[in-house]
């Protein structure tokens, strides 16, 4: 049987679980204080694609429901029969979703007709409203499919240094000290949980020694992470880099080729660097790599984490 995609109600429950996760880890006597702090934060609602806040009362309700009844208690409240399809086989649901995904403008009546003609659905066995309900429940609407906005649960670790991300960004040209201009690269490491840049620095090339230098400086400051998430770039898949990580006790994981969505946090930081730092540097050109890095390190210190944190 094909595996069905994540239901919207499960994604909502997971999001609410992430909201209260700090309360679940709080020491005895600090749960209320943690709830008050959470009530002051903004959260990225990946289900509805917006930033949201929660009142202290709502946060405590999620916490209490979870402690009493578990994960399912965090799902949106609804009628007991709403959104369920006990008489419809999962294979039929999968066929409905696949036909809609194949051609987003395909209507529910047309999907029913195609399944009936293919012998996968008996005539008059389900109503067109039921097909529409299934499509909406799984987020398979014409708009969401055409814009790739179906529900994806964002991967995020639950503590600092559980996982880092790393990437290389091509920057711009600066004088190389030999009467010529040379392209510089920004290499960086980011903690998945805190979004803190553990270390990043500009170099005249993006080779293994430069990557190793950046990693060494990050580890000296924050210790080695459990896992490192990277793309399939040449320096990241090299045997030497894998060996360096193995010696540090770091497990290297790779993103799916051509689908770097899991590295969105460090990509977002690169955009901040481009918009807030590099745009200014281009107006006031630097004369050397050391000057560039001095200005970059100073910029990082004067720009608080909230300016590039990914909520």
Quick recap of the structure?
The protein has 3 domains: 8-74, no CATH class; 90-146; 163-307, Ribonuclease H-like superfamily/Ribonuclease H (Nucleotidyltransferase, domain 5). Helix content is 45%, strand content 14%. The chain has helices at 8-25, 31-38, 56-69, 90-102, 108-117, 128-137, 142-146, 208-222, 234-237, 239-247, 264-283, 289-302, and strands at 43-45, 50-52, 163-175, 181-191, 197-203, 227-230, 251-254.
Total helices: the number is: 12
Oligomer, anyone? single chain
**Strand arrangement, largest sheet?**
5-4-3-6-7
Largest sheet: 5 strands, mixed
Helix-strand category: alpha/beta
Using the CA coordinates, give the radius of gyration: 24 Å
Poorly predicted residue ranges: 79-83, 148-153, 304-311
Percentage beta strand: 5-15%
* CATH architecture group name of the largest domain: 2-Layer Sandwich
CATH top level label of the largest domain: Alpha Beta
- Envelope shape: globular
CATH topology of the largest domain: the name is Nucleotidyltransferase, domain 5
Identify the CATH homologous superfamily of the largest domain: Ribonuclease H-like superfamily/Ribonuclease H
The share of residues in helices is 40-55%
Distance between the termini: 36 Å
Mean pLDDT across all amino acids: 82
How do the SSEs run, as a string of H and E? Answer: HHEEHHHHHEEEHEHHEHH
């Amino acid at each position: 049987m094909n595996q069905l995609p994540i239901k919207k109600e499960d994604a909502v429950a997971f999001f609410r679980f992430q909201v209260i996760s700090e309360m679940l880890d709080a020491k005895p006597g600090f749960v209320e204080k943690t709830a008050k702090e959470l009530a002051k934060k903004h959260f990225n609602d990946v289900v509805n694609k917006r930033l949201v806040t929660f009142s202290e009362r709502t946060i405590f309700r999620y916490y209490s429901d979870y402690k009493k009844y578990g994960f399912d208690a965090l799902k949106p409240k609804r009628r007991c029969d709403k959104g369920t399809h006990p008489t419809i086989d999962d294979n039929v649901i999968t066929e409905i979703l696949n036909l809609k995904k194949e051609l987003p403008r395909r209507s529910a009546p047309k999907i029913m007709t195609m399944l009936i003609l293919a012998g996968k659905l008996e005539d008059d066995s389900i109503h067109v409203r039921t097909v529409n309900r299934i499509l909406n429940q799984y987020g398979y609407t014409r708009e969401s499919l055409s814009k790739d906005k179906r529900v994806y649960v964002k991967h995020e670790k639950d503590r600092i240094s559980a996982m880092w991300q790393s990437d290389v960004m091509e920057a711009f040209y600066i004088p190389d000290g030999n009467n010529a201009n040379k392209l510089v690269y920004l290499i960086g490491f980011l903690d998945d949980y805190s979004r803190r840049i553990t270390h990043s620095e500009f170099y005249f090339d993006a080779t293994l020694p430069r990557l190793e230098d950046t990693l060494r400086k990050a580890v000296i400051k924050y210790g080695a992470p459990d896992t490192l998430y990277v793309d399939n770039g040449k320096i990241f898949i090299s045997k030497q880099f894998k060996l360096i990580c193995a010696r540090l006790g770091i497990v290297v994981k790779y993103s799916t080729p051509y689908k770097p969505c899991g590295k969105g946090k460090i990509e977002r930081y690169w955009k901040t660097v481009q918009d807030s730092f590099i745009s200014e540097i281009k107006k006031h050109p630097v004369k050397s790599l050391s000057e560039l890095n001095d200005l970059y390190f100073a910029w990082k210190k004067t720009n608080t984490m909230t300016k590039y944190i990914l909520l």
